[in-house]
Fold these 2 entries.
Entry 1:
Amino acid sequence: MAADAGRLGVLDLQGGVQEHLDHLRRIGVAAQAVKRATELEGLAGLIIPGGESTCLARLLDIFGLSHAISQAYSGGLKLWGTCAGAILLASEITDEPPFLGLIDMAVSRNAFGSQLDSFNRVVEVPAVAVEPVPVTFIRAPKIVRVGAGVRVLLQLDDYIAAAEDEQILVTVFHPELTANLAFHRYFARKCGLTPSDNDAANLDPDWTPQSWMRFAHHS
Amino acid sequence: MTENRYLLNAQLAQMLKGGVIMDVVNVEQAQIAQEAGAVAVMALERVPADIRKQGGVARMSDPGLIRAIKEAVTIPVMAKARIGHFVEAQILQALKIDYIDESEVLTPADEECHIDKTQFAIPFVCGARNLGEAARRIAEGAAMIRTKGEAGTGDVVEAVRHMRTMNREIRQLAGLPSEEIMGFVKANGIPYELALEIKKLGRLPVVNFAAGGIATPADAALMMQLGCDGVFVGSGIFKSADPVRRASAIVKATAFYNDAEKLLDVSMDLGDPMPGQSVASMAGEERLAGRGW
């Protein structure tokens, strides 16, 4: 494999881009922000971050990125959608047409209510981590159905919160907003990469809620 | 507000980064804003340009209007409470909108006290003209900051002034030897612990958007290049000749703020911008940014 194949990208149009870049740095994986179709070349995987899905959809459409992502997907690119990213990847969205439609599942947008209904919780996800994982839900969608080829990674109450198929991982919560690195390591391995300190604790004691600012642009 | 709730609120603002928050006065405008790619809408009865023109006391909007807008869109809905009017804030929290803007655009209800935002579960965004003002609002519990700019003018000069001032003061603070910090925080009215955090981070510890006078895609990109995390556009969209095109162009310009080719592309054929009013020509008492401290 080319040296290039060891890189992951984070779609950099709007939303929680820097948070993912910081987590990828923490697991020792080469990563880059992706704003243009040409920047998809050579990536092993792409994270579509949280943000506002309608905004992301508009921006993906106008500069030909959605077409480029679908093509790269056909060529083997792995994808991980968090929150809004999961909505964009779903084949079915309640009451509206799907967008990229690359994974066989139905999502219901903003399914918990307003910001006052955003919450944290600690969950067991045996496929991803041995120890419990803290997860953050912010105006999150719910996965309400998955197709036969899709494996449920986390079922909570009446909805699915994480799932995957061969090429795609989806989480309706935000692992990048916690100190826990388990999902980033999991996705890196899914992309064929070896995160550094693979056996180290998933909870990074050096992480703070401001860690993303390392990647924020400054004037 | 618990520490955990505050973090969730600051993290919602993080998810809005790189986006445009648009003022809307009815359901139709809210849908246009969402369709154009706004990351949130600010629901209000009158945009700042009309508040200016009509005068009188500007208050929290009718909750019925805000609720109608909330039901019409899936993106977050924000609404304004007057500075210090904690009961308007209680009502907006009961309405379960997503963010409250404690805003100088409305007529202040209290000239001494801002709202104690730590008493609420709902997040607040507050305006600031400089580092001290931003730090005081954060200490009161604001989970997001915006420049004040000069709302309703279509003149970006004040937003630029406020952002440059914040950047300059942060650079000053970052470069200070430890024994000079106390004098700096005294002169600027910055809570000491927060000053240490800002010094370490080299920026505000929360998301900071531009607001006040942004009327064109170039204005939005200018504020982004100056280091803002996103932009609010008030009167600039729905007071322009072609709100649909302009809204979409400003969304694109904010995402591609560093790409002159794309900025050129999106700036073409947008029709007339809002007419605007030069801030330099305005008397001191006409300026809204001086409200609050």
Entry 2:
Amino acid sequence: MTDTPIKDAAAHAAAAKVADYEHGWSADIEQEFAPKGLNEDTVRFISAKKNEPEWMLDWRLKAFRLWQTLEAPDWAKLNVPPIDYQDAYYYAAPKAKKKLESLDEVDPEILKVYEKLGIPIEEQKVLAGVEGARKVAVDAVFDSVSVATTFRDELKKAGVIFLSISEAIREYPDLVKKWLGKVVPVRDNYFAALNCAVFSDGTFVYIPEGVRCPMELSTYFRINAENTGQFERTLIVADKGSYVSYLEGCTAPMRDENQLHAAVVELVALDDAEIKYSTVQNWYPGDAEGRGGIYNFVTKRALCQGARSKVSWTQVETGSAITWKYPSCVLNGDDSVGEFYSVAVTNNFQQADTGTKMIHNGKRTRSTIVSKGISAGHSNGTYRGLVRVAPQAEGVRNFTQCDSLLLGNQCGAHTVPYIEVKNPSAQIEHEATTSKISDDQLFYAMQRGLGQEEAVALIVNGFAKEVLQQLPMEFAVEAQKLLGISLEGSVG
Amino acid sequence: MLSITNLQATVADKPILKGLSLSINAGEVHAIMGPNGAGKSTLGYTLAGRPGYEVTGGSVVFDGQDLLALDPHERAAAGLFLGFQYPVEIPGVSNLQFLRESLNAQRKIRGEDPLSGADFLKIARAQADAMGMEMDMLKRPVNVGFSGGEKKRNEMVQMGILNPKLALLDETDSGLDIDALRVVGEGINRIMRKADKAVLLITHYQRLLDYVQPDFVHVLAEGKIVRSGGPDLALELEREGYRELAA
């Protein structure tokens, strides 16, 4: 743990580069980065930086050794360029972009999008990385630092634990140890194993028995989500009879110098508990020619362990060059419920292979899947979903609705459902449609006064309505605008 | 208000309008009648700017503006409304949302402030009431699951809310029973029979004209106006058929 990670000239050069950014948010700690490349030393460095206990380091190292024996999955309908894992930073990469003095220095295209989304100016500064904006914006959003404190106090009073995962590992090791890796095992898949080895930070939430979390865990997160995107780790445990609604992500376009993202999210719902998890994902999708953009390989899974527990995933996926993501529910508890509502938009050269898995192990477990895929430009969108009913699971019900909307004739929409039923009492329904935005619809809307892009946005939002209305109110409006913006230039 | 001079238009390279001229003043109701394939619907679509309807000659001046230079939504904002023969369904989008966004988009182009939700609802409710339409219908997705008659009635509610200067009504009477025809006819009169508005009825049959009395009737055949006259011309057409008159 005391190994010095800086061993070569390249790392020293990187250190010098970092020194240029001493006014950055996280530059107050000396050498706040690991050198390029991935080996056991990188893993040790990250663990040491976080003052992690021995057991955590061991867990990471085991994961790293396992990861080295695994192969990246190739079954998705994605064309993934080879990724050089040694040519990347795994902890606090030196930022290539310079600190901005004001919003005037921000790419006007990005500012235009902020404006269309209706993001307040102070919040825009934070998102764009303007010098000194952070404190101001937090104040602006929460009115004052004391309000932020009130916010934390209120959660504390309710007994809700809401911390970064690093803090939780130090402060609540038993809780973390009990559930970390229990929903998504280390060996689950290549990207999950990688995340276990090198996760930088993330969130831990624990809702005690019988507590209804007094607020959406969202507003807070919106501002604080920067710089945790690359290898995020989230663990939410809802104890018996509790409820929490959690929103991850941001409608504003997020740039990140790290091309590879591999997050893991684990949810645990005990008896009668309910978790509503909403995601708006708008990472940089690459340019119109398909250059650049984030590769997003995410493993999200919920364990509905308790009887009558419920987990609802809602996702609006508009960003990233490549999306590989299947938020799933393992329905172990009798009468537990899993839901998956998804809108996935791909434009230009984006590729998305996304869907869900509903694993029915408990009796009378129910699941609902509503997937809306929208493809434009030269993009490809795939829905991939598994519904599995175990032999002992009597009286299972599933309903799956899978709709695809195409804009133009260069894009593709694909639906790959897997249904494995081992109990004859199961009722499984699957409906799928594919349609195009018709010239009739566009002209009709334009004749009433809507510009072409407004018309596309309106029609697309109508198509995705069932999913959008699952989102917490304040984000539903922004998500609607986001769908329109993501498809700009895709018609005509 | 509208001055069409020697308008020529093609659809998929096929000439449909072949030198059509027509003038409509404020306060007037005109009817264009003609046999199938004469170019009646093409005239409506061309004036509204539908992609695929290519103007190859002539000019159209609307309210002092070169209409043909405007995009379809700009024509709408300038005050042109096309009542569709086959109103289009938009799943998941409520009538109210559709019309509010459309109206505010028009207002924006005209440099007017957007209407608040409450002000818009007031207008929408009044127009729905006047057309005998339940507010519930306005909360349903645009035209989805509407009968033919309900769709046409909905077009009139839309026209009332958007309050255009010029309405081009394409076969608005088709698919209507006699009661619905009367309601729609009354709607047209109530909304559009005003000194500062005008109507162009595009119709195959005389029957709508029993409810909406035109000031002028024109016969369109082979892409041109071949005859114009007063309301009597419609009756004559009904009696004699198009073949004689167009000849």
